[in-house]
Automatic annotation (TrEMBL):
<dbReference type="InterPro" id="IPR013216">
    <property type="entry name" value="Methyltransf_11"/>
</dbReference>
<keyword id="KW-1133">Transmembrane helix</keyword>
<feature type="region of interest" description="Disordered">
    <location>
        <begin position="1"/>
        <end position="37"/>
    </location>
</feature>
<feature type="domain" description="Methyltransferase type 11">
    <location>
        <begin position="314"/>
        <end position="407"/>
    </location>
</feature>
<feature type="transmembrane region" description="Helical">
    <location>
        <begin position="46"/>
        <end position="68"/>
    </location>
</feature>
<keyword id="KW-0812">Transmembrane</keyword>
<protein>
    <recommendedName>
        <fullName>Methyltransferase type 11 domain-containing protein</fullName>
    </recommendedName>
</protein>
<keyword id="KW-0472">Membrane</keyword>
<dbReference type="GO" id="GO:0008757">
    <property type="term" value="F:S-adenosylmethionine-dependent methyltransferase activity"/>
</dbReference>
<dbReference type="Pfam" id="PF08241">
    <property type="entry name" value="Methyltransf_11"/>
</dbReference>
<dbReference type="InterPro" id="IPR053223">
    <property type="entry name" value="Prob_Methyltransferase"/>
</dbReference>
């Protein structure tokens, strides 16, 4: 008879079975699941987490550098060491500058190769009888040479690429329309370098009026007037006629200031600003009184602003500078744009102790945005093409500061043009009207329907 023996496990085996049951057995899928860890074990885990957190905090705030393990080719990134980060940034910037310099050198080499190739192609074209196109000389009808080439071509910076300029070359400023008058420009640039300049002021002005503005610089010295006399001191110079020996008179019809003063006292003749050299006549009375019409007074305009807030300004087409003189008497500095149209307007303005600016209406105003308190003009009228006028008005808006004023003085137009053309232009610019006065111009007859408009316009604060 087979007898089955009953085996009773030892106490050690019983303990092992209990541990296996609690852990889910050998395969991890036992039926037993503990409800929650013992309180003693939970406290131990929290304590370990707190200790680890404190150790990490001490390590971080002690100033140690923590670096990420990246491939050897990658730059190290320092998360908390500011000096190391600054060194990395400087090294990166230096590498970038070096790369830009290399690019600039490569570009110069490419340009040289391109010029060489163009020269070869031009030579082959000449052999075959081809005529060069305008595009072959950067828009010039003929290839520039001599002084004109030196004055208009870009020049390499001695220290290479400039981060400030964003280039390794300096390009001279030249009016785009100069390309349309290459023959005249070549004549202007034909002179003896380091010697006296040709006596060609009138010729240069004609080039400017054709749109060749600004003109290129020249390497010559303009002739000074013979027996030059220094100007009178301020404030007497504001209302005194300067000596005739302060001007080279060869470009002008009149050969002295007496002739210019007498122009305003005689009838007939068509001259620019005919009577503005007569400082003892009508010019002396300008802008002193408000006539209730389009003639505003300087004091009335300044009274519309908070005292002392009109300090610097511009007078566009200011003739001999009388508006600037009146403003200087009121401690306001005004720059006057003027052209030497058959008279030395710029020298006359300067002799009065004022600042002239030789600038045509087509040129962008040489001021930064929002820097002027007031802009005044009597030059603008319906002789200016509508699009040109609109660009000029937006440019005036640009240079005025918020709250600055534009004084449009005696703008001339015909009746239908006023509301049909010019009021919409002014509205598009965005000025706010402070004062507006339109009056009929009747000296040549009412049937001509001619009008003067004067306005005080403010650039809004917001």
């Amino acid at each position: 008879m087979h007898t089955t023996k009953l085996r009773i496990p030892s106490s050690q085996q019983q303990q092992q079975q209990r541990d296996a049951a609690m852990s889910g057995g050998a395969d991890g899928y036992g039926a037993y699941r503990p409800g929650r860890p013992s309180p003693r074990r939970s406290k131990m885990m929290i304590l370990l987490v707190v200790i680890a957190t404190n150790l990490v905090s001490v390590y971080i705030f002690s100033g140690a550098s923590l670096s990420l393990r990246l491939p050897a080719s990658a730059p190290s990134i320092h998360l908390w060491d500011s000096s190391a980060l600054l060194r990395d940034l400087n090294a990166t910037r230096a590498a970038l500058s070096a790369a830009r310099a290399e690019i600039a050198v490569l570009r110069a080499q490419c340009n040289t190769s391109s010029l060489l190739l163009e020269s070869v192609l031009a030579g082959l074209g000449a052999i075959h009888g081809d005529k060069p196109t305008v595009e072959e000389f950067n828009g010039w009808p003929e290839e520039p040479t001599g002084e004109i080439k030196l004055a208009i071509e870009p020049h390499r910076l001695p220290l290479g690429y400039s981060v400030k300029f964003g280039t390794d070359e300096l390009h001279p400023v030249l009016g785009f329309a100069c390309r349309n008058f290459q023959e005249e420009l070549t004549q202007y640039m034909t002179y003896n370098a380091s010697a006296e300049c040709p006596d060609d002021d009138a010729f240069a002005l004609q080039l400017m009026l054709k749109g060749c503005e600004p003109l290129p610089r020249r390497r010559c010295r303009p002739r000074s007037p013979a027996r030059y006399v220094e100007p009178s001191p301020l404030p007497g110079s504001l209302w005194s006629i300067p000596p005739d020996t302060s001007v080279n008179w060869s470009p002008y019809t009149c050969k002295n200031y007496t002739c210019l003063v007498n122009r305003g006292r005689t009838r007939g003749g068509s001259y620019e600003c005919k009577d503005c050299f007569d400082l003892a006549g009508k010019e002396r009375r300008r802008w002193l009184t408000d006539n209730g019409g389009p003639g505003f007074s300087i004091d009335g305009v300044l009274a519309s602003r908070r005292p002392g807030t009109v300090r610097v300004g511009l007078d566009i087409g200011g003739g001999t500078g009388t508006f600037a003189a009146r403003m200087r008497e009121r401690n306001v500095t005004v720059v006057t744009t003027t052209l030497d149209l058959d008279a030395p307007f710029n020298r006359f303005v300067a002799s009065r102790g004022l600042v002239p600016l030789h600038l045509s209406l087509m040129q962008r105003l040489p001021f930064a945005d929002g820097v002027l308190d007031i802009v005044h003009s009597m030059q603008l009228s319906n002789w200016v093409p509508g699009d040109v006028l609109e660009f000029a008005l937006f440019d005036i808006y640009r240079v005025l500061r918020p709250g600055g004023v534009f004084w449009l003085d005696h703008f001339f137009c015909l009746g239908p043009q006023l509301n049909g053309t010019y009021v919409p232009i002014l509205d598009r610019v965005g000025f706010r009207r402070l004062r507006w006065k339109a009056s009929r111009k009747l000296d040549l007859g009412a049937e001509r329907n001619e009008w003067y408009v004067s306005a005080l316009l403010e650039k809004p604060m917001t």
